[in-house]
Model the fold of this input.
Amino acid sequence: MKVKRIGVLTGGGDAPGLNPAIKGLVYRASDHGISVIGLYDGWRSLLDPPLETWPLDRETVRRWDRDGGTNLGSSRTNPFKAPNEAGERVDRSDEVIKNMEKLGLDALVACGGEDTLGVAARLTQKGVPVVGVPKTIDKDLAGTDYTLGFDTALRNVTEIIEWSRNPAGSHGWVQVIEVMGRHAGHLAFWSGVAGQADLILIPEHPFSYAKVFALLRERMGDPNRLTRDPRRPRYSVIVVAEGAYAEDGQIVTLDDRQDAFGHARLGGIGEILARKIREETPYDARSAAIGHPQRGGHPSPIDRIMGLSFGARAADAIAAGDFGKMVSARGIAPSFELSLVDLGIVVGNLNTLDVARYYDTERYHAKNLGM
Done:
């Protein structure tokens, strides 16, 4: 089949690197004589009329590599569990196929994380020609060493950790910083290493409140001492992933609602930890849940390079008729080796932090990395 016209969409949470990926796709696709149509708001674009599209050419996307977020918009729509006119969640995946035909699309490029690419994998089984581009600041996708958005989020969170030291040190309190990371602690861990946080709590290893309190006492000593020891710090910084939980507890959620993929909204573990520190230790504590700004801002150089590279590789795969695949990066940034892996590899699999290699489960921070 000669591919002449393709659609591209971005699903799930926005991430720096998506716009560079779209630019890389459009530029390389034009080399192959393939036109690209932007689809608004993820999988929703192929379900709800009117079908909003944006013809993309080199001039349109020329400056997109400088933009954070996604210029095509996004959503957490699941075509296999989408609301119908009665408000019931049903399988509407056949509408995706029909609407692709209406738009004259020969193939799709889906940029997203485990949910967006999980939909792509299921559509592949129904005969839809799809190529995936990995995106998530959690860096938890199986089959690749890099996902778009991670490096920029790492930069952002590291800066916030550094900025938090000033008020914490001035007032002598414990600063708890809650960052994203549902199942994987890559962002919390590596930002904690870069920002030299005193404790790092991740989803891969349940923590003990008693142990946290003991480590704080070991670092900060008696807050009521009459004379200050300049060699002993008066403050601490703790980085905690939103999916981290205590040994005697469970993952903390904001409410009981779930999205179309069955995910609850995580958040609140940072405030709970800060409150327990205030109640059960002699130290004052503050919490800051960074939220969505941690994935904001302009893409880092790594995310620009990887976005352009991922997009171009996706266009090559489509031109070669190599569907049902996700672009994968192996190696060390920015000179990754790109390849293609089956989309099915992302379904039910996660790339979590190698606790045995990197994480000190007794000290709750990095081992052999200067901490």
Remarks:
- The chain has two domains: 5-148+299-346, 152-294.
- DSSP finds ten helices and 17 strands in the chain.
- The mean pLDDT is 92.
